[in-house]
Amino acid sequence: MRSTPVVAVHPKGGRQREDGCAAALARRLPLDRAPALHAAASFVLFKTPFAHVPRLVPVLIAVCALLLSACQTTRPPVPSPHPDRLRQQVDSLQAVTDSLSRAAFLRNPLLLSTLWVQTAVEYDGTARQAYVLAEQMMRRGLADSTWTASTEQAEMGHQEYRDKPPAVVLDVDETVLDNSPYQARLIREDEAYGSESWGAWVRERQADPVPGARAFTQAAVQAGVQVIYLTNRDADLEGATRDNLRALGFPVDDAPDAVLTQGEQPGWEVKRPRRAWVAERYRILLLVGDNFGDFAAEVDTTVAARRQRGRAFREYWGTRWIVLPNPQYGSWEGALHEFAYGRPRLQQLDAMHQQLRPKASE
């Protein structure tokens, strides 16, 4: 599943504007105020939540200006400082603003989640565990002709699907293909997700397999089960997606279509119509994905409503529906800020902070 992760604040953003401001202040800032300024900057640097760091740069400068104004009322006019001292003060103020911007860059909210996917044994083990369970459930479903992972097929009754050929339906991104290198680029380059950079990454065909995914799909083919990849990648990226899958050894056997992309046919903007297309042709043994929308419709709603809807499918989780871990992005993130992707990132982060539930101390 591909959503919209966003990153804020370039480590060197706004340097030219800050130079002018810093110089103006430095011409009036007595050198004996420097220790207090650095102490304030250090407090902001280490104590301020990520969401508020960028906005405190102008606040800090405003405080300095107020101090200077106060100084004007208590001190007589002094001669202009020596150019070397002026340069020292400019550098001092610039170091403060650069440090704050650097702190925001290093505290990128995607950093830990991306590193977990790329480095953690726990991620590797969790993904492999999911696919071991998937193979076990697939074989159980093969032996039971009334078994289906499709809620639509279940509502029709097993007489409508029991004689159809079996298939497993898998999402692609973060389910079959690992795109964490793309996330890492966004972090390193301090950029936000965008359709242009995402499309360029897909066309590079460099995604790696999610641990356990390739072995599972190969086992499915050996068991006589059709593998269907149902992805929200755009239709114009299907060729690159197929190339990437084939190069990694994933089976891409069209019978009639193994890769179903977003917008490939009219009305295929969301996944439900594509799952229905598969259900007309196959008995769906498993749905495998990393996002609630890979399994059910109407999931882009509030956190509470999603939780309630998820509980309605308890009998499916871990049996007919197999979930892969994705802490980097997904509809779970959108629910935290009510899917307000057009909002400024700081407003989104503030909304996310409101979703935290710390236990009250006794």
Key terms for this structure?
single chain, alpha/beta, Rossmann fold, two-stranded antiparallel sheet, 51% helix, disordered N terminus
Please characterize this protein's 3D structure.
The chain is an alpha/beta fold. The chain has two domains: 15-106; 111-329, Rossmann fold. The protein has helices spanning 15-26, 34-47, 53-74, 83-106, 111-119, 121-142, 151-156, 180-188, 195-204, 213-222, 238-247, 272-281, 303-311, 331-336, 345-354; strands spanning 166-170, 177-178, 208-209, 226-234, 259-262, 283-289, 321-323. Strand 4, helix 11 (238-247) and strand 5 form a beta-alpha-beta unit. The longest helix is centred in the first third of the chain and has 24 residues, at 83-106.
Class by helix and strand content? alpha/beta
Note the total helix count. 15
Amount of beta strand: 5-15%
Number of strands: 7
Write down the domain tally. Answer: 2
Instruction: Provide the CATH superfamily of the largest domain.
Output: HAD superfamily/HAD-like
In short:
With 362 residues, the chain is of the alpha/beta class.
